[in-house]
Input
Amino acid sequence: MKPVLKIEIWSDVACPFCYIGRAHLMKALEKFEHGDAVEVEWKSFILDPTLPSSTDRDLYSSLAERKGMPLEQVMQMTEGVNAMAAKAGLSVNFDEVKPVTTFEAHKMLQLAKCSDLGDDVKLRLFQAYFEEGANPADAETLVQIGTEAGLKSEDIRAALGDPAFAEAVNRDVAEARSMGISGVPYFVIDRKYALSGAQPVATMLQAVEQAFSEKEAAPVSQTEAASCKPEGNCD
Output
């Protein structure tokens, strides 16, 4: 039996680099000959826990305030992210993005992990948030998104109201803090290697191949992850 390589990804639904980073990872795994031996687990990270559940503000003004940047600089920054997303084969529409809390969406993602639907739900949330202007804090919107990705509506509603799922989100966030993670996406491979930011496909493939070859030769105990310089992340 092939050794299973686990990749944990700390990420937020509202992070465009996380969307891009996922696309890069999936392309790397398509090139990896042992891709069927890789397990991906999405971990919760909240970029801005102060955001409301609904708002009339646009993303640009919200980011300008949070980062203390001029609006014009924020606009230029998002143009650069748009180009990076397009290169990864993704469509991002920042004009429609709603700067709201993602905590409820993370509850649904914790539920999805119980059904091996974590990546399906994560991808659908990215698409809904960045391409369709969906509100990830709205329960009915999450039910629609989740059922489209394979979850049952009754399970989603129950999870959104269950404190256990909120605790699971908070555990992921606390674990990220204990590991010194301050920006996402953050990829941890077998608790031995780490990649921070939306790294290029070739970089991700190389890291996965190295981790897999080492594990195949001699499985090792978990060690502290070593970071790689970010190429693009949200903080």
In short: Confidence is low (pLDDT under 50) at residues 219-230. The chain has nine helices and four strands. Residues 5-217 form a domain with the Glutaredoxin fold (CATH 3.40.30.10).
